[in-house]
Task: inverse folding
């Protein structure tokens, strides 16, 4: 044998691939690394692979992430076996699909007017979103919109935001009256033409646009003349590397153009339609949300509108019967609407709940003085929170920033509030926003579950592709990594309540899925009944001492599951079947009750304590485990295999053969008076005489599972990764059945309660005949793999 040998020189390119194209699918091959040797493991020691790719054995597999421009990744690989190491530098190039930045807003005149008209009256409000998409836009990036130099101009009063939103009031374009060129100096009315476009009428109103009505006792019906104009401009959408320009128009029309005496308006241009009008709605300035106001007070809410003054007349305010969602339009109790000013006022009485939300709709209706002109409505729906009379009864102690949580890991997060009401129990409800997929807010404030990084059968993930549609953030083009939600906390008497908004960010440290493997016994009905009575006894398991009592991953663990292997790379179910193919039905012994603590990594903060039952494997002791395979043919006297009890029985322990087998074959086997308790399973296919017996210990099972793929250590329960107070070191993997997760400082009391109850764990026949896997490729949920039960011929 020799150390690994690379067949290509340094800086060799391993190929050029296209973004979002899976290696090994269709005509795209996986990358076979140019290395030869026996029992090689390959790892990266410098640089990094293109995001989305990973090393699997001596190949590179995966799906390259989207890139804005071609990216060359340079990295150093180390090939290693028992004879030595060999390093080599390689590169991989990832190309994009080309310029995938495209406009979705059609070019030409924009439908910015009321009812999507392709014109806008002067002095009207514009709020229009320009849209472009980029399928290659990486997470955290966004499209920038701006008008390039010499790109035209927007109508006066209109602005374009960096997010592509056009907003503002259109300014009018006033014209010089055609009569202004008929005379010379002082031959026309003073100040009538050219200077301020004014007219000197007789009725006391100025014709200049200052108030849009005539002035000065001369011409009672004269208004300023205006121009219509197309504003043409270029908008550039850029992702930081590429850009795409698109030309747009906005047609601004004077309100004097929309009159019955207009003899130049043409309807065949597809610009104007039968519902054209010079009338403009009153525009609400007051925002929809009116804030939080205190009950048992006199309250005045000022309402404000903008009046385009298209018509003569007055504005009145009417409370609508229903809101925009057809719910009843209701003012807070004690408040009324002033129909002349629109203000809402009144004395709000005492209310027991701290926060109660009211929703109502007001119609700002312009009443025309001309009976032939219809009234013009403008409705807006408002909400207001009325805070009860009790001060600070409930307040949240949890910070609004919940920090980061790793995807695919069990959540320890919760929100908590306190109350001054004695013996009150608080319940928590999600009232708005969205939790990450996989997490659930329970009424005790715990955030249960784990964030799903990938979309699986029946479960939405952080990144979900459905019929070629990506689920994206509500207002950005980045894939969700931050979630904002609001929680309501209230007591059971409904005397007080409060809300708080929280932000939770998601981190994705792994690009693979991992599974956990358990075993548990299937007990007799009499034993199950005894366990039900034991676990449901509040004198033993005081609810106040239980940590996250409603969370199935914590609280009281009444199913007696023992973790066999945490965090093994998720595979097809067939891989697990072959792994357990040599395992057989196995009996464990129960030990004593013990406790462990779990601390937040890197801190001394105790998260919980655990009461657990020790589990003893007869084929392991402090020195080690039975050998993985036992060769019974090397003994010079019969060693029989008891089929009923599955023991290997040595007929003569006076010689040294057994000692030799113990050292060379069995490592450190546990001997019990002529009976070598080495449980067995199947044999190797190549073992035609069936003399090799599988040493069915937990250690050997875990070795076989480990060979399936990568292991993620962070799936090891937190208490196994925490330095314990009695030893100062991490406990590591422990054969144990969790009994109850306790709040910090209460495990000793819980153990004492269990001992005083007289419950005997020795009554439990902890025999297992199958493994339980919490997920396999394509499916989430427990899957059972039965242990093999092959017959073995006596050696």
Result:
């Amino acid at each position: 044998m020799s150390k690994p040998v690379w067949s290509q020189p340094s800086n060799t390119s391993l190929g050029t691939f296209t973004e979002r194209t899976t290696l090994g699918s269709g005509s795209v091959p996986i990358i076979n690394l140019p290395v030869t040797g026996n029992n090689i493991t390959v790892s990266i020691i410098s640089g990094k692979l293109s995001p989305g790719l990973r090393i699997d054995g001596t190949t590179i597999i995966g799906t390259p992430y989207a890139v804005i421009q071609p990216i060359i990744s340079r990295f150093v690989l180390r090939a290693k076996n028992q004879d030595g190491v060999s390093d080599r530098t390689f590169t991989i190039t990832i190309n994009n699909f080309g310029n995938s930045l495209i406009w979705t807003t059609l070019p030409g005149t924009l439908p910015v007017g009321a009812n999507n008209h392709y014109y806008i009256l002067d002095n009207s409000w514009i709020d229009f979103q320009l849209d472009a998409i980029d399928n290659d836009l990486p997470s955290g990036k966004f499209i920038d919109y701006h008008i390039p130099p010499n790109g035209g101009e927007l109508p006066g009063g209109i602005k374009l935001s960096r997010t592509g939103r056009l907003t503002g009031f259109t300014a009018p374009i006033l014209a010089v009256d055609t009569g202004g060129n008929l005379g010379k100096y002082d031959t026309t009315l003073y100040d009538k033409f050219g200077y301020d476009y004014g007219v000197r009428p007789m009725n006391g109103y100025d014709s200049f646009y200052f108030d849009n009505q005539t002035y000065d006792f001369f011409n009672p019906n004269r208004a300023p003349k205006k121009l219509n104009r197309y504003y043409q401009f270029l908008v550039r959408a850029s992702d930081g590397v590429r850009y795409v320009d698109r030309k747009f128009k906005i047609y601004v029309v004077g309100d004097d153009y929309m009159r019955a005496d207009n003899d130049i308006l043409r309807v065949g241009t597809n610009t104007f339609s039968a519902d054209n009008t010079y009338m403009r709605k009153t525009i609400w300035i007051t925002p929809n949300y009116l804030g939080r106001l205190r009950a048992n007070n006199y309250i005045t809410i000022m309402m404000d509108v903008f009046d385009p003054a298209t018509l003569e007349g007055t504005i009145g305010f009417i409370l609508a019967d229903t809101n925009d969602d057809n719910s009843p339009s209701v003012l807070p109790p004690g408040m009324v609407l002033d129909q002349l000013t629109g203000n809402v006022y009144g004395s709000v009485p005492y209310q027991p709940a701290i926060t109660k939300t009211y929703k109502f709709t007001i119609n700002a209706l312009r009443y025309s003085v001309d009976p032939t002109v219809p009234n013009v409505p403008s409705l807006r729906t408002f909400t207001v929170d009325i805070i009860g009379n009790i001060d600070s009864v409930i307040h949240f102690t949890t910070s609004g920033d919940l920090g980061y949580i790793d995807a695919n890991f069990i959540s320890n997060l919760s929100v908590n509030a306190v109350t001054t009401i004695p013996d009150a129990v608080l319940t928590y409800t999600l009232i708005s926003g969205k939790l990450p997929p996989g997490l659930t807010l329970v009424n005790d404030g715990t955030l249960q579950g784990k964030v799903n990084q990938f979309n699986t059968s029946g479960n939405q993930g952080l990144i979900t592709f459905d019929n070629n549609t990506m689920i994206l953030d509500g207002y950005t083009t980045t894939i969700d990594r931050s979630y904002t939600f609001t929680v309501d906390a209230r007591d059971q008497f409904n005397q007080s309540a409060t809300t708080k908004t929280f932000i939770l960010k998601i981190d994705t440290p792994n690009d693979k899925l991992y599974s956990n493997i358990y075993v548990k016994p299937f007990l007799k009905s009499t034993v199950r009944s005894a366990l039900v009575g034991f676990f449901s006894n509040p004198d033993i398991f005081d609810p106040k001492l239980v940590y996250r009592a409603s969370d199935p991953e914590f609280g009281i663990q009444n199913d007696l599951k023992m973790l066999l292997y945490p965090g093994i790379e998720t595979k097809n179910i067939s891989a697990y079947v072959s792994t357990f193919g040599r395992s057989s039905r196995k009996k464990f012994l129960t030990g004593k009750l013990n406790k462990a603590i779990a601390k937040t990594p890197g801190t001394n903060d105790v998260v919980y304590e655990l009461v657990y039952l020790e589990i003893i494997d007869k084929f392991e002791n402090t020195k080690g485990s039975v050998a993985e395979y036992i060769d019974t043919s090397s003994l010079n006297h019969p060693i029989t295999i008891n089929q009923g009890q599955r023991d290997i029985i040595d007929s003569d322990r006076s010689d040294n053969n057994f000692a030799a087998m113990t050292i060379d074959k069995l490592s450190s086997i546990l001997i019990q008076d002529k009976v070598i308790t080495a449980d067995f399973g199947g044999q190797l296919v190549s073992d035609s005489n069936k003399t090799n017996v599988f040493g069915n210990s937990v250690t050997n099972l875990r070795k076989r599972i480990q060979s399936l793929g990568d292991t993620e250590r962070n799936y090891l329960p937190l208490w196994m990764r925490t330095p314990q107070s009695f030893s100062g070191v991490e406990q590591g993997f422990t054969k144990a059945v969790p009994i109850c997760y306790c709040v910090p400082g209460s495990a000793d009391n819980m153990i004492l309660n269990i001992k005083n109850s007289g419950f005997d764990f020795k009554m439990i026949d902890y025999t297992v005949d199958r493994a339980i896997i919490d997920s396999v490729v394509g499916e989430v949920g427990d899957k059972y793999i039965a242990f093999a039960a092959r017959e073995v011929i006596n050696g």
The chain has six domains: 5-95, 101-173+228-257, 283-387, 394-511, 515-617+713-786, 620-696. The helical segments are 525-535, 573-579, 657-665, 698-706, 747-757. Residues 612 and 739 are 5 Å apart (CA to CA). DSSP finds five helices and 55 strands in the chain.
